[in-house]
Amino acid sequence: MQRQTTGAPGLDELLGGGLVPGTLTVVVGATGIGKTQLGVHFAHAGVAAEGKSGVFFDMSSRGDSQNHAAYAQRMVDWKLTRCDSQAKPNLEDFFATEADYGNFLHVFDYAGKRVTKRDLDWDAWHEWQGELNEKLATTIGFLYGNLCRGSRRVVIDGIEPVDTPSESIQFNLFEYVYHQVMRKDPMWVARDLFRQKFREHAAEAERQAYDPAQVGCMLLQTSKEAMLDDLISRPLDEGDILSGANTIIYLGKFMDGRKLRRAMYVPKHRGSAVTDEIVPYTIDDAGLHFEG
Question: Is residue 138 very low, low, confident or very high in pLDDT (cuts 50, 70, 90)?
């Protein structure tokens, strides 16, 4: 089976060769456990594997983005190019050679709090839904443009822990992005983007067509649990994200004598042999290193 390398030293071997293209990988762990660094490994590995880096789509709303740019610069000397979340795609020159879609989009503005139904009143919730609709064109243009240019990896971040995923604006946006952009036939994505102007751009869209089955998605999901044992005890059918993922990777802490250490466990990896061990890893300026 064809594989996509994670780019993280030692991890591909533990996953039976790597991740499966065209599927969803969910990396679950608490803040500060190394999820963003793993996302950088995966996205940057596209340069060597597919000739084009992956992209970052950050849906966080509570404040600053998740330090993707700082980690990319420090780990692999990679300078991310930000896409303006306020700018609508330039549809007239969308396929122009000099068009630059950026490789990092922080889609929402600062809110300072979680964006769920139970955290907002009725008016505020519908204001956020309105902002979501306003940002869909920017989101589609960012992802579709990069996929047309050869990117085959998307790292999605910013889904905050909630009791009911369906009440989260971030979860709703992820569902749309994953099913209606990444997994959809590119000609239909072009129709959604160009709308009444589709016929003017149909021939070029056809020339830029790509295979969605070659696109890998890594979702970085923040958990309430910090300890690996607590993550392992979670039911895999908890929420649509985990039940629908091809691969789930837990990153958490465990007690090693008198020390707390970081370790990984893979409860789900369809279509491949995978280690059933708890595997320690370390983090330094170059990122994550797994002990195979």
Answer: very high
